[in-house]
Automatic annotation (TrEMBL):
GO terms for molecular function: actin binding; cell-cell adhesion mediator activity. The keyword Signal does not apply. Keywords: Actin-binding, Cytoplasm, Disulfide bond, Immunoglobulin domain, Phosphoprotein, Repeat. One of its GO terms (cellular component) is Z disc. The keyword Repeat applies. One of its GO terms (biological process) is axon guidance. Its main location: cytoplasm. This is Palladin. It is found in: Cytoplasm, Myofibril, Sarcomere, Z line. InterPro entries: Ig-like_dom, Ig-like_dom_sf, Ig-like_fold, Ig_I-set, Ig_sub, Ig_sub2.
Length: 260
């Protein structure tokens, strides 16, 4: 007695979930349908209810283990939507659906300094900030070095800071002579790396300058003798006694004339 051939509606043994893929990247959707019964089920794909045809960026592959793949490369914004895979044979069909979200293409810009580090001086014991501003896409990683030594973690006295606007700061509380030297800040992302170096000088506390007597100013005088004496010249050594005219000597008293 002939054996009656039986057919079974296909079902999926493996199916992917929703996907998010960045624009410009590769997207791969893998599924596996059962092959119980005859004929072997046919698979087709739809995007938002419209059949997908193979082309330069959409490929449909079948591996020996029965895994079917839809490969999209490169993914564009037009590829976003609801994908439906349909497995059908003579006994019927089965489907699964997933959503593909296409994320905007990431913009890569190498880091650049908007404001560079500046050479700085500080008095010993006072706080000091080494500051700069950096831009870049994606947001760059920041690295600090003093001379050839990397600064990898914050301490109570030395700390590294940055905000969402690109401002970078190295804060030193209570600067010491050991803090003086060359400091380098580097910014790195997928597009490149940039560095900037500046010097920090730490000065000793200012000493009070000693009090000094102001030099005497020689004022103009009608008396040449007074002017010379004020300059510290020895008048007696400069002129011989006989050189002084007798008539310049002032009399100590007044003489009254008999005729008056």
């Amino acid at each position: 007695e002939p054996i009656q051939e039986r057919f079974f509606r296909p079902h999926f043994l493996q199916a992917p979930g929703d996907l998010t893929v960045q624009e410009g990247k590769l997207c791969r959707m893998d599924c596996k349908a059962s092959i119980v019964g005859l004929p072997t089920p046919d698979l087709s794909w739809q995007l938002n209810g419209r059949p997908i045809r193979p082309d330069s960026s959409h490929k449909m592959l079948v591996r020996e283990n029965g895994v079917h793949s839809l490969i999209i490369e490169p993914v564009t914004a037009r590829d976003a939507g609801i994908y439906t895979c349909i497995a059908s044979n003579r006994a019927g069909e089965n489907t699964f659906s997933l959503e593909l979200v296409v994320a905007a293409k990431e913009v890569h810009k190498a880091p650049v300094f908007i404001e560079k580090l500046q050479n700085t001086g500080v008095t010993e014991g006072f706080p000091v900030r080494l500051e700069c501003r950096i831009s870049g896409e994606p947001s760059p990683q920041i690295f600090w070095k003093k001379e050839n030594e990397s600064l990898t973690y914050n301490t109570d006295r030395v700390s590294m800071h940055q905000d969402n606007y690109g401002y970078i700061c190295l804060l030193i509380q209570g600067a010491t002579k050991e803090d003086a030297g060359w400091y380098t800040v580097s910014a790195k992302n997928e597009a490149g790396i940039v560095s900037c170096t500046a010097r920090l000088d730490v000065y000793t506390q200012w000493q009070q300058p000693p009090q000094t007597t102001k030099p005497k100013k020689v004022r103009p005088s009608a008396s040449r003798y007074a002017a010379l004496c004020d300059q510290g010249l020895d008048i007696k050594a400069a002129f011989q006694p006989e050189a002084n005219p007798v008539h310049l000597t002032m009399q100590s008293g007044l003489v009254e004339s008999d005729d008056l």
